[in-house]
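Side project, low priority. Logging it here so it doesn't get lost.
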Amino acid sequence: MDMHSVVVGTSGTTAEDVIAVARDGARVVVSEEALAAVAAARQVIDDLAAKPDPVYGVSTGFGALAVRHISPDLRVQLQRNIVRSHAAGMGPRVEREVVRALMFLRLKTLASGHTGVRPLVVETMAAILNAGITPVVHEYGSLGCSGDLAPLSHCALTLMGEGDAEGPDGVVRPAAELLAEHRIEPVELREKEGLALLNGTDGMLGMLVMACADLARLITSADITAALSLEALLGSEKVLAPELHTIRPHPGQGASAANMAAVLAGSGLTGHHQDDAPRVQDAYSIRCAPQVAGAGRDTLAHARLVADRELAAAVDNPVVLRDGRVESNGNFHGAPVAYVLDFLAIAAADLASIAERRTDRLLDKNRSHGLPAFLAGDAGVDSGLMIAQYTQAALVSEMKRLAVPASVDSIPSSAMQEDHVSMGWSAARKLRTAVAALGRVVAVELVAATRAIELREGLEPAPASRAVLKAVRAAGVEGPGGDRFLAPDLALAEEFVRSGELVAAVEPVTGPLA
């Protein structure tokens, strides 16, 4: 576990903190200010619990069962039961980083002083995160409204010392054993606490934050591979001139054009399209690369704005307000997050689609301006990268299906009490798949473009392109030549892109890219 610490206070958190906890194992520290606010809100709940008037989540049932008043002697059982009954997930396990993000974001809301839990609950959840204990959460069970109910319930189950969890060694064991090994006492939940642990958009938000970070790197990577493809096809860099993008002032478009221009600076390959068969203009997949990637950038900027707002939120129902009122609300509805999750899947699919079209152009001897068919060593005997493009096309086709919005599909639940839901969790799950696929698509373009540049004998690539060629070959991805087992090359290229090594290879030459 990384010993870097993230402090949780009363005013929300940042995307960087979420990633530090979820992916890097940063230690969580709850501030004294937050513990004081939590204690003050808890006093409000204790006062209400002592009164005869029914209060939702404190002295009533849940959802469509909220009409029943629960007597004091049954309230501990009520809170325990909501966790057990709602921990109804099915399907494969969700990734460790997603569960850690989910728990950290729920902890963030609990620490806001708006949920009414005891400080003990907050401190125990932080201890579980710091111990590296990760509850077993399943793929299916959230409708993205009333919170990510089943996923959060599985996390709350671990807090109670029930169910299964993964230890820091990666082995799944009973949660009670793991808590005991780390000297963490299971929590007996009291009024409001079971509900407060389940009622948030934390899963979909955590996945949005991580997807934004991954997509930012992939969009920059796609700018680089688009530049390499333009170079390999002897295209014109004139379309990247800043004045052409200033007159259509989408910021993302300008940033992508600037990235591509920086990569191509000093190239001896660009502009040669007039030498063999005159081309007045390059194909759209080359010429419009900044417009498509730029639109993805602007979509990402909007998604980050939504994520930042949600990271500043305290999502629960009911909430404890600073003036002592406890009010029901609908802030758990995941629509704001779900919409941008779907929007990002659309942008990712289109970016993959244009990258695949560039790859296909590199492989087609009728459109590649002098390159051998499929970039093969001995076309006919060798197939070159023919089937790599098949794999890329299959990924793009899958991404187009994943771009179908989840957020427009509401299925009523809880006996029609919860009659409109966001499906934000589903939007987040498919976006994660799409982001992984985009990384593979960009990797295939990288393999094709670097091979094609090396086949342009007698022409000197740009300094940044040479840096990419050196780095990608050092990473083990082989260049032109006869056919070989191709899957390992593609896997190495995928890791080269996913890890950020492609961007890191270029920036010492170009300076920081957007």
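Brief comment: DSSP finds 19 helices and nine strands in the chain.
Revisit when time allows.
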